[in-house]
Amino acid sequence: MSQVAALARALDNPGAGMKFLFGHVTKDIVHDGEVAVQADDLPLTEDDLGFAEGLRRGVERGDRVLLLRSADRQHYDVLLIMEGG
Hints:
Layout: H1 3-11, E1 19-27, H2 29-32, E2 36-39, E3 42-44, E4 49-51, H3 55-58, E5 64-69, E6 76-82
Parallel strand pairs: 4-6
Antiparallel strand pairs: 1-2, 1-5, 2-3, 5-6
């Protein structure tokens, strides 16, 4: 099993609280001056999101993003951007 698959399997454990999920970008820097994502049945703002360096400016409205939800469900890290989701 690859390391990524092993990580995904470990994080998908309901007891861990952390989870991979997809989100839909509803606001971006160019058009709105801020980034917002709809995911986990919640509207997430930049206060809720963490970005790897360079990803924040690369995200655009309509993109889908792969997120990692923290165990406490209070923070979401953007891991990957998929254009035009």
